[in-house]
Specification:
The protein has five helices and no strands. It is mainly alpha-helical. Helix 4 crosses helix 5.
């Protein structure tokens, strides 16, 4: 039984070779070419896992008596391959998480800014309302004084002042409404840009996954366009 695990000799040699290669490889995970090379290397390492599993299955069928020992060896080699994969996959996952965190932060910031903007608008509208109420009271008081004094010149002067105050209040209200409209359009544009960026990242991720599954890049692109146009029944893109 000394050679009962010799079935793994070929894959053990492959793992030893990949270990040396794995320690030497350095990828720029943030660069598109570096990311592609890293994922290609990971895919190659995963083929070793498949080979390990196939050898294990055949050997176990032939010799169930030492199946537990085969399981242990399988887990050992699989763990080694997983460790090599993690060296390159973890940075890729970290970058993806950082990108998502940036998008989430931008959305949260936009929401906070919108809440503050609405609060400012409400405060300004209340100020305009208070000014209008004050102006109305002042007009009533001015009318009372005019009636009491019955002085034409004084009444004319107060009417002029009231007209100027009303014109100013109306101008302020108009300016506030215009500012509100501009700010709403600005927020809408920021949301549109953030959504466009997010959709592109999702579509790029789908494109990469399809090419990893041996899709031709152009076929992958057409497939994504078909999804976007809802031309494939029962399949949609989850943004």
């Amino acid at each position: 039984m000394a050679n009962e695990l010799a079935v793994f000799d070929s894959v053990a040699a492959t793992i030893a070779e990949y270990k040396v290669e794995n320690e030497k490889l350095v990828f720029d995970y943030a660069d598109s070419n570096g990311e592609k090379d890293a994922r290609s290397h990971i895919a190659k390492l995963r083929t070793v896992k498949t080979e390990i599993a196939n050898i294990h299955k055949e050997a176990k069928a032939e010799a169930l008596a030492f199946g537990r020992r085969l399981d242990a060896k399988k887990n050992e080699y699989t763990s080694e391959v997983e460790s090599m994969i993690a060296v390159h996959k973890d940075p890729l996952d970290k970058i993806a998480a950082e990108k998502q965190a940036i998008i989430d932060a931008e959305i949260a910031k936009a929401q906070a800014e919108e809440e503050k903007r609405l609060a400012d608008i409400e405060a300004r509208e209340q100020a305009v309302k208070d000014a209008e109420e004050k102006l109305a009271k002042e007009k009533e008081e001015a009318a009372r004084i005019a009636r009491e004094k019955d002085i034409a010149i004084g009444a004319a002067e107060r009417a002029r002042e009231q007209a100027e105050a009303k014109a100013k209040a109306e101008a302020d209200a108009k300016e506030l409404a215009e500012r509100k409209r501009i700010e709403a359009e600005s927020l809408k544009e920021r949301k549109r840009i953030a959504n466009k960026k997010h959709r592109k990242e999702v579509e790029d991720a789908i494109h990469f996954a399809l090419t990893e599954l041996t899709f031709d890049p152009e076929d992958a692109e057409r497939f994504i366009e078909a999804l976007k146009e809802n031309e494939i029944p029962h399949v949609t893109i989850l943004y």
